[in-house]
Every structure is written in C-alpha cells, then in structure tokens.
Amino acid sequence: VDKNVISIKITIYRLARKAKLVDYLCRAAENGKDVTVFIELRARFDEQNNIDWSERLEDAGCKIIYGFEEYKIHSKVCLITRKEKSSIRYYTQIGTGNYNERTAAQYTDVSLMTANQQIGLEANEFFRNMALGNLYGNYSHLLVSPVSLKETVLQLIDEETAKGPSGRILVKINSMTDVDVIEHLQKASAAGVQVNLIVRGICCILPGIPGLTENITVRSIVGRFLEHSRIYVFGEGAEAKMYIASADFMTRNTERRVEVACPIYSPAVREKLMHILETELADTVKARMMKPDGTYERIFADGIDSQQVLLEEAKAAERDIPEQVEGFVRSLLTKFRDWR
C-alpha cells in the first residue's frame, strides 16, 4: 500500500460477482486510507452483487454513499489524492465502462488516467457535491449530468452549426433518443455540417433526408465485442473539442442520471481516440449503415473489420511494452553515468 495516498473516492455502477476492485478498496481502507464509495444499488443486472459488495466494503471501513432517489449514479470516476513532498496531488481516472471484470472482457470501452490537476480539482469538487447531495455544482472542465452535460452538448452542436459546411461533428455512443439533441443535429445538418454518428443500438434520427438530415450518416457496428465507449468530437484538428463520457444521448442519461464527460487535452490521447473513430468509420465488415427509412444495410466489401484491427494493434502494443521499458531504463542509466 502506498503510504503517501491520503484518500480514494470512486463511483460504482455495476460490479461483477467476483470483483478484485473490492479487494483493493478494502485493503486500502484496512491500511488506514480514507476510502469513499458511491454505489448505485439499482444497477441493471447487478443489483444483488452491488448490495453484497457494499456490505463487504462497509465492514472493511469504507464510507458507503448510496445513489439518489430520483437519479441513478452512472458515472465512472475514481480520484486518488496523494501527498507528494509539500503538496497534494490528484490522480483521476474517468472512463466509459463499468468497473466490472465480466463486462470488461466483453465490451469495448476507453479510460483516461490523468494527473491533470484542473481535472483532479473538479473531480474532487464533484465528489464533495455528491457527498452533500448537491447535483448542481459548477464545473469548468467536466460535463456533469443532470446539470451541465446536455446544455453544453447542445451549445457545442450550435457552435458547429454556426460554421456551416465547415462544421464537423463526430459522435460514438450506444443510443440516440434525446429529442433536443436530435433537433439540434438536424439543424446542424441543414446548415451543411458534416455529422457522423456511430450508434450501436437504438437511433431515433433518420439520416439522408433531403433538406433535413442529408449531411448525417449513421452506422452501427456489431461484432465480437459489444461497442460501449462514448466519445464526442465537435470540430476538427487541434481546435476540436473532444470528450469521453459515461452518457449516451438519451433523456434518461442527460436528465435523470449522474453522468460525467471528461475533456481530452493530451495530443497523444486525442490522436489515439481519433484513430479509433476513423478505424470504425472505415469498417466495411461489421458496420451497418442506416438508410433514410430507418432500416440498415451491410456494406458488402472486402476491407476493414475495425474490432479486429484495433485488437491486433493492442496485442502489438502489449508486445512492445518490455522493449519500451528496457529502453527507458537504459536512458536512465546513461544519464546517471553522465551525471557521475
């Protein structure tokens, strides 16, 4: 256990029957760390697991705070506060997927781990507000539902609409049913904005309708893994505003759940996420394109299976890790010899 860690705060929506995360949180609490767990007892499919694990966590000394009566806690946020020399630093993890070993092996998700102190400060404020039962805190970086996520998304769509044909919107989510978001996307399309939507499940916006949604494309990817990540991109290039989020564009997510979207500032992470999105846009094997009548058709062409491409890239990156570590150690030794 890291002696410099002061506290751990985490939101939990769905836990598996076997959950190593619980073991780690319990161990931290038993070693004197201040551990606070915000857990949702009404998580679909895993209600009993969450009840059982909350009792174990409480017995170990964790502070347990349950969800709100009218709002489910669906965000995926973990904040570690650590003392370093004479200062306090925050380390924040925000993702699109649950802390669930079973679904982690079946779903595609993305997760950001960051030492950005502005995000850490806002994550700390988020947890403080949650502990006080305040769902309407003020945030400059994080988008938090029900207070600011939907309002900001609509504003970002409108900013692209104002650009006309040079506007760009690229969104990957599980479902699209929020009427307000749909209406704003239709206006963006009518203004000439190119709108590309990757929506695995239900989608209530019809693409390709002249004068209304002719600049909108909708594709669904169904493959070996269940597509589960949520990524929002407004604009293009270095000026684009990019987020990963726990929320789909459904009214239940944007208005009746506690959700968090996190801005992506790191150029390297932005490049990685854009690569994922562009690979999925190029999929000709598992992708289905929605037609104006709401039906889907497969793209019959030899080409790219996006999930397979990304899987192979992940395997290759894993094989390269030992070489990267070895190279890093060699560089440190060289610097040390030079210093001597």
- Find the count of extended strands (DSSP E, 2+ residues): 18
* Annotated CATH architecture of the largest domain: 2-Layer Sandwich
Can you summarize the main beta sheet?
A: 10 strands, mixed
Amount of helix: 25-40%
Number of helices: 9
CATH superfamily of the largest domain: Endonuclease Chain A
CATH level-1 class of the largest domain: Alpha Beta
| Domain tally | 2
Rg measurement, Å: 21 Å
Choose one word for the global shape. Answer: globular
Sheet-strand content, in percent, reads 25-35%
From the helix content, strand content and strand pairing, which structural class follows? alpha/beta
Helix/strand order? EHEHEEEEHEEHEHEHEEEEEHEHEEH
Q: Taking all residues together, what is the mean pLDDT?
A: 92
Structure description:
By secondary structure, the protein is of the alpha/beta class. The protein folds into two domains: 5-131, Endonuclease Chain A (Endonuclease, Chain A), CATH 3.30.870; 143-310, Endonuclease, Chain A (2-Layer Sandwich). The chain contains nine helices and 18 strands. The strands form three sheets. Strands 4, 9, 10, 11, 12, 14, 15, 16, 17 and 18 form a ten-stranded mixed β-sheet that branches. A six-stranded mixed β-sheet has the order 3-2-1-5-6-8, sandwiched between helices. Strands 7-13 form a two-stranded parallel sheet.
